[in-house]
User: Fold these one by one.
Assistant:
Number 1:
Amino acid sequence: MATFGDDKLLAVEPSQVRVRLSVTSPAELQTKDVRLVLKFEHKGKKDSEYKYRLKLIETSLVDPITGWFTNQPKKFRYDFKLESLSRLEFKRLQKEMVERGSPDRYYWTVYYHLKNKVPEGSKIVIDLELKLAIEDDFFYLLKDAPMVVNTH
């Protein structure tokens, strides 16, 4: 994003933006009320924040990988796209970014809930990926991020 010029930003078609969340077993995601939030900081200006509701488009299961150097449990993978109203909000983001210029800092956050109760102390790994065009590959915003379940 740091090298993302106005022309590239304006070329992003909101209907093609995709978010992928993957979690290791035993966790599964609740696929309702998943949101992407982008926050931008500009020096000397008020921060801007954009919230996008996501719609599930596909789920898949990634088989476990075991070997000499890796031991990865099975993962549940969830692909989302922006809901229709969120696409309009993305257009507002594009306009504001052109007017304000590139931000000094930006933050990507995805809000989600777990579907099932996970046993206390379980270690779950989360991946968060994004792509801005259907023909592009996903890129990681978060990879193999550990989460320890605490029910207190």
Number 2:
Amino acid sequence: MQLNDSELHVFCMQLTDVISDNRYAVLDDEERRRAARFVAPLHQRRFIAAHVMLREVLARFLQAAPDAVTFTFNLNKKPSLSGSFANQLQFNLSHSEDFAVLAIVRSGDIGIDIEHITADNKLDIAERFFSTNEIATLSAMPQTLQSAAFFQIWARKEAIIKAIGKGLEQSLSSFSVSINHEMEEVTVDQRKWLLYPLELHPDFAAAAVSSAPFSKVFIWDCSENAPILRSSNNI
């Protein structure tokens, strides 16, 4: 697989299948320890499936074996490629319930987030964590639309937080996003980010954020063990 400087690639996977032993073998010792910490077998299977997908997709771009891909982590545990693969590309992984998404770009900082949309009203949580403008937007909406809009905002803000790589050091209320369906520019601490809303599944809200501009977005489906191009869009 090829990756141009102006492209964003997003890979999607349903985390419902049990990973075969030969695919599980690509995980390193740390990933296996993290998987073992999950008490519920369902959560363990989802973690394993997401991280196998991560390695297999990265390996295609890097022209390497999945078990040869190595990672390093910053102080807030954001991963990046290490060793001979350092700086060859940038990636970010997110999963919610049984759905995982992986964003990959050639350069710049990248973040992605996906959130399962539930029917319960989250306005009280928004009032604790969102900006004044976002709270006003939600409050003005009919209650039947507030839940989906809440998760759209949450996913976009989390994607930005993940792209920045500071974890909880960056307050969610320190910047605002919209609920529009077009790419937008968001400024956080005087740094500009490109936010791209993703419509991947009706039950999930998702967004990708990059510090570097891109002109084309590719959406891939990895549910059949190999990435299948679902769509490509010019920005």
Number 3:
Amino acid sequence: MVKMLSRLGALRPHIFDVLLGALAFALSAAMLFGYDLADDGVLRVLMLPHAKITEAYYHITMPYQNGVGYVAIGGDFIISPACMGVRFIVMLFCMVVCFFTMRFRGKDKLVFFSLSLVGSVIIGILASCVRIISSVPLVLSGQFVALHAGTGVVIYLLTLVGVYVLINRCLNNRATGGSYEKQ
């Protein structure tokens, strides 16, 4: 009986981690559901960073067209709601929360959880912008859909791995007092 109680006591700190993971999945589901139901006014604002970064990079103008997205003058390409990368943002957020929240204690868990959400949105938007910018030259190829999808897979995978490695390295550095020496 004492051993069983001891094991339950050891599990208690992990219950908060499981609850934060469940909260991350609930927020993710709400984000996906809300994005699917968003009207043109909301989509126009959410996709604005993608359009502005693409406009600045290619020196073009992209007005918003209701029901379509941001359309390049001349109609060569469109930044549609699917280009936002909301599924990638959700995946990144869930990965960071599930892999790293357990390394924090007390209020630091909540701070890290909040920073994970904000950071995932920012990094997700930047990764989606890189995907869009790198795909524009492929528009005139006969295989744009496949090339655009492949480009997205590579960029998103590199971003996931990069974020994981960066956070892991920072947290390991923090745990060792700032030393990167091999042990």
Number 4:
Amino acid sequence: MDRTAHQHEALQSYLDQWKLSDPEPLAKTVTSDLYKVRASGQTAVLKILSEVGVKDERHAADVLQWYGGHGAIQLLRDDPSAILIEYVDGEELTELVKSGEDDEATKIIADVLNKIHFVSQSETPHDLPPLQQRFQSLFDKADQNQKSNSIFTRAATMARHLLLDQSRAHVLHGDIHHGNILHHRERGWLAIDPKG
């Protein structure tokens, strides 16, 4: 069965299981197919994961649950192959940059990061990969270029140094950029699409 047929079957299954209606395609990426849907009278986004997405995005629901809507979109429901999240119809932060307001956009990113990285829960999700593991491909690339002073070797040296001096663990978003911050008309700027 090709991906299109599989995703159509998966969409119908989630519509039935989670009592969703009115699906409208939003985006198709390597990791997922996104649909705007109605869920219990509210608009939401159903994100059905591809095989790549199941591996790449497996921690997204844990991270969104941890954030609890504080500085990030709210998780409504999930299983290993899909997540249902609140719908945000505001602009991406990229629009501020396009209009020449990069300094303001940078302040907004810092504010969102402060909100999500300082959620005051006592115990972090237990299966999130540590930074050392997330940086492994950088370390491997640097090891291949040991004799040069490439950007990889310099970055790996800095990363190793910083990783030795960790004082407090935080649940990191893992993919913050201007396109992953949207404006919610009531709750302000919110992070979407975490990797953990």
